[in-house]
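Priority: medium. Attachment 1 of 2:
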């Protein structure tokens, strides 16, 4: 199949970006070394739908070297990097992705990745798996199974499973220790602030930062905001998470109170309508709104637009919404994932772990699909332990080992 990308001549800087991240992904490098020889994916056709930037490109290359034929599409129109897409094509992977593509094009690319007749699928957010379950059921017979990268995608899959509609086994890669503990927490923690700072070029210290949602991503974002010197306020709907935030040292309050004092708002709930028309009139002039949750529905943008006299782009990835009373409210990255739209997403060292989990999740499907029920599965916890061991060795960190006496004592 012919790739659809912006411009193949952009490849040189894409190669530079991929080569840079490879230096910091030792677990993926060791996987590549081992499986380029045994080629466990020979004869398999893998469709990957994940943010198309350098780390994803390297993962695609590792799967290709492990024997698979690989097609990649982006999982968000704003996170695709056209130079990386071009470099990936030069490295022998078929790509359907363009930065800032329209919704129609995005849909066309997903369909192309299904026309490829994959036997295995990696998804990020559930878009391609849901298309296969609805309009593209023709692809089902050839698919052995899939794996899913993120919380919202896993929630969507569990919905399909509970209605008895899931048509192949899926691994919840997100739910592996070596994924959510590091990617959602430390990855989102760092990359959202990188995205917000790149977009605004403003100081975070001393500002009231409101984090909506104190799940794995919210905890990381709050922790890093505190480190940057912000006064952090958390909003939650879950009483346990709210107590956790209190004992982590943060103020907790409802959004209608936080709206009055916040300087920067970051939604990371996986829910919709977290910031709405109820809140915009309460906000200070200059309030900045950003989202790092899955969809662009956490900040209700149509309601903000309705209340505004004008909407205009004032910097790359910053839109100003002028209110009738003269206040200005700024929205970053169109309310889409700020870390990927206005940055390169999570750092390489983090995606090293997430994508090692993806590799073993898809390998798990390949080896076990015949006996796996059409459900959402977890990969065995030992896989995360192995990944962590390789990572520790690579970064030169040694740990103690249990003695036989200690094992016996713990089991007694
Ligand atoms: P999580 O389930 O651990 O946490 C979500 C939290 O939001 C929960 O504590 C929940 O109680 C809270 N919440 C729900 N509705 C709320 C509301 N109206 N107001 C306040 N709090 C509310 O999920 P997570 O792993 O932290 O993921 C959150 C979202 O971020 C998901 O959509 C996930 O797919 C996405 N995600 C993004 C990135 C990224 O790179 N930007 C990385 C990983 C996950
Ligand atoms: N399709 C969704 C994406 C969910 S984003 C959307 O844009 O609407 C959440 C996932 O992005 C996380 O689980 C994380 O693993 C992944 N991610 C974060 N940084 C990344 C990066 N640099 N490269 C590839 N994926 C990344």
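Attachment 2 of 2:
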């Amino acid at each position: 199949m012919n790739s659809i990308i912006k411009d193949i001549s952009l490849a040189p800087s894409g190669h530079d970006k991929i080569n840079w991240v490879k230096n910091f992904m030792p677990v993926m490098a060791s996987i590549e070394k081992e499986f380029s020889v045994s080629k466990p994916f020979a004869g398999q056709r893998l469709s990957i739908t994940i943010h198309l930037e350098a780390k994803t490109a390297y993962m695609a290359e590792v799967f290709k070297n492990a024997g698979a034929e690989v097609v990649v599409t982006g999982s968000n129109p704003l996170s695709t990097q056209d130079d990386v897409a071009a470099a990936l094509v030069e490295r022998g992977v078929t790509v359907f992705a363009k930065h800032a593509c329209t919704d129609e094009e995005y849909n066309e690319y997903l369909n192309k990745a299904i026309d490829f007749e994959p036997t295995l699928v990696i998804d990020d957010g559930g878009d391609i798996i849901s298309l296969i379950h609805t309009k593209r059921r023709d692809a089902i017979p050839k698919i052995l199974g899939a794996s899913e990268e993120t919380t919202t995608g896993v929630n969507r899959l569990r919905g399909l499973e509970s209605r008895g509609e899931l048509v192949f086994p899926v691994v919840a890669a997100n739910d592996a220790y070596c994924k959510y503990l590091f990617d959602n927490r430390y990855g989102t923690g760092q990359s959202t602030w990188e995205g917000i700072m790149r977009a605004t070029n403003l100081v975070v210290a001393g500002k009231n930062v409101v984090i909506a949602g104190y799940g794995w991503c919210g905890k990381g974002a709050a922790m890093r905001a505190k480190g940057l010197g912000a006064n952090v306020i958390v909003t939650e709907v879950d009483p346990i998470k709210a107590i956790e935030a209190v004992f982590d040292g943060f103020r907790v309050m409802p959004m209608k109170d936080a709206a009055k004092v916040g300087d920067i708002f970051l939604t990371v709930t996986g829910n919709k309508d977290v910031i709405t028309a109820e809140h915009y009139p309460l906000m200070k002039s200059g309030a900045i709104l950003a989202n790092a949750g899955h969809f662009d529905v956490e900040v209700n943008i149509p309601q903000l637009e309705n209340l505004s006299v004008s909407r205009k782009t004032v910097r790359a990835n910053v839109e100003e919404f002028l209110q009738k009373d003269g206040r200005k409210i700024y929205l970053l990255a169109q309310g889409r994932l700020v870390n990927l739209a206005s940055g390169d997403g999570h750092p390489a060292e983090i995606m090293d772990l997430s994508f090692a989990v993806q590799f073993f999740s898809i390998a798990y499907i390949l080896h076990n699909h015949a006996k796996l029920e059409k459900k959402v599965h977890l990969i065995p916890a030992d896989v995360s332990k192995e990944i962590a061991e390789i990572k520790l060795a690579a970064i030169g960190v040694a740990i103690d080992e249990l003695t036989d006496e200690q094992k016996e004592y713990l089991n007694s």
